[in-house]
Amino acid sequence: MNKKLLTIFLFALFSLNLSAQEAVKNSSDKAMPGGMNSFRAEVAKQIDLSDFIWKEPFRLVVTFIVSKEGKMENIKLEESSGNTEFDQRILDGIKRIRKKKWTPARKNGEPVESFYTLPLTFHPPK
Predict the structure, then answer these.
(1) Is there a smaller number of Cβ atoms within 10 Å at the N or the C end of the chain?
(2) CA torsion 64→34→41→24, rounded to 10°?
(3) pLDDT in tens, 72-84
(4) pTM recorded for the entire structure
């Protein structure tokens, strides 16, 4: 891997701050195989930011549903970065990994659909 690609990958990996907020109360955790750190790493690998330059941190928010079957569905942008092309790259990157099966949330022992909110904060390269 050349030095530029490695730098971009590491920047993306450590600059994306992902968190999930659960909409289902009193349920066991739903999870991506390998956990949220694995999910963060997969998202970072799927996003090419090499064409973009920015000076200030900014945030966008992506939402999706994890179905009863453990599938990522209805991936949507809730809060834009202000750059349509950038937003689309983020959505495309997340959509490329949606085929991976999640462990669905459970309520009273039964699988249930759950809602994720992923706030993503991007910091300028140093």
Answers:
(1) C
(2) 20
(3) 999 999 999 888 9
(4) 0.71
Residues 6+ apart with CB under 8 A from 37: none
Outline where 1-103 has alpha helix (H).
Answer: 3-15, 35-46, 84-96
Q: What number of other Cβ atoms are within 10 A of residue 23's Cβ?
A: 14
Contact 75, 94 (CB under 8 A): yes
Q: What's the half-sphere exposure (Cβ side, CA atoms, 13 Å) at 73?
A: 11
Residue with tokens 């928010």: 61
At residue 13, φ and ψ (nearest 5 deg) are -60, -45
Within 13 Å, how many C-alpha atoms sit on residue 75's CB side? 16
- Name residues of the chain where pLDDT drops below 50: 1-28
For residue 102, the SS3 value is coil
The DSSP code for 111 is E
Torsion of CA 99, 101, 106, 111, to 10 degrees: 70
Q: Residues 12, 43, 40, 81: what is their CA dihedral angle, to the nearest 10 degrees? A: 60
